[in-house]
Write a structure and sequence with these properties.
two-stranded antiparallel sheet, alpha+beta
Length: about 70
């Protein structure tokens, strides 16, 4: 089992490399999907965990390592 996981937005499209029109169309659709997910409170459905092979403690953002103070 991996020691580290990566939190990701699990949303995307496969496009043909070098097809600028297709890439732009996918970018627009991607943005619209994100905005709709936010608007309809479905953003949590797009968040998942994946293994992060090769990740180290140094890859964890500092704000996640800070202790919470109440």
């Amino acid at each position: 089992m991996n020691k580290y996981k990566r939190l990701i937005i699990d949303l995307g499209y496969v496009v043909r490399a070098g097809d600028d029109e297709m890439i732009q169309h996918a970018k627009t659709a991607f943005y619209e999907d994100i905005m709709c997910a936010h608007k309809y409170d479905e953003a949590w459905d797009c968040i998942s965990l994946e293994d992060a092979p090769g990740a180290t403690e140094a890859d964890i953002p500092e704000f996640l390592l800070e202790e919470e103070t109440i």
